[in-house]
Design brief:
alpha+beta, binds zinc ion
Length: 179
């Protein structure tokens, strides 16, 4: 098991502080002293597949770890109480200064994401997005650069995050179709 997995990282009960806090081998910890059960669930995240009129996909380069410097698609974590479609629009605005005018749900992809030596189990919710006004386009926030690439020219291995790499591979193979 990965050393960053919550099974190994969470060693004390968050309720009573007891070290008799054990992982069930599947999805939760249990405290032998106060009885608290702590579930580890998938954390929601969004990915935006933004295409232009030529059908090229807008890629960004990651500013931060994990996978700093690799090719990526715009997106990020959903905030508490936020709708996934609003998170997608917020992330696209933050990273690219673009307003999404139309979005269609494409698929979801489970993934793991290590941040500060703790592994998060994520569920990436993928949208196909259209934009009408490109005039403000520039990379910002978590992205160092952005560019349109025809899918057939994209080296799937240059994509840093597992779920995004799988997604780009599936888009390239036509297993997931964008209208
Ligand atoms: Zn406890």
């Amino acid at each position: 098991m990965n050393e960053c997995h919550p099974a190994l990282r969470f060693r004390f009960c968050p309720y009573c502080g007891s070290p008799r806090f054990t992982w069930d081998g599947e999805k939760s910890h249990h405290c032998a002293d106060c009885g608290h059960k702590l579930y580890t669930n998938e954390v929601g995240a969004v990915i935006a597949v933004i295409t232009n009129a030529e059908g090229e996909v807008l890629f960004v380069r990651r500013r931060f770890n994990p996978a700093k410097g690799t090719l990526d698609l715009p997106g990020g974590f959903i905030d508490l109480g936020e709708r996934a479609e609003d998170a997608m629009r917020r992330e696209v605005m933050e990273e690219l200064h673009l307003r999404v005018t139309r979005a269609d749900f494409l698929c979801t992809l489970p993934n793991t994401y290590v941040y500060d030596t703790l592994m998060y189990h994520t569920i990436d919710i993928v949208f196909h997005c259209e934009v009408e006004d490109w005039s403000a386009l520039r990379a910002d926030d978590d992205a160092t650069e952005c560019r349109f690439l025809p899918l057939e020219n994209v080296d799937v291995e240059a994509v840093g995050l597992d779920s995004v790499r799988r997604l780009v591979g599936m888009l390239k193979q036509g297993e997931i179709k964008i209208k």
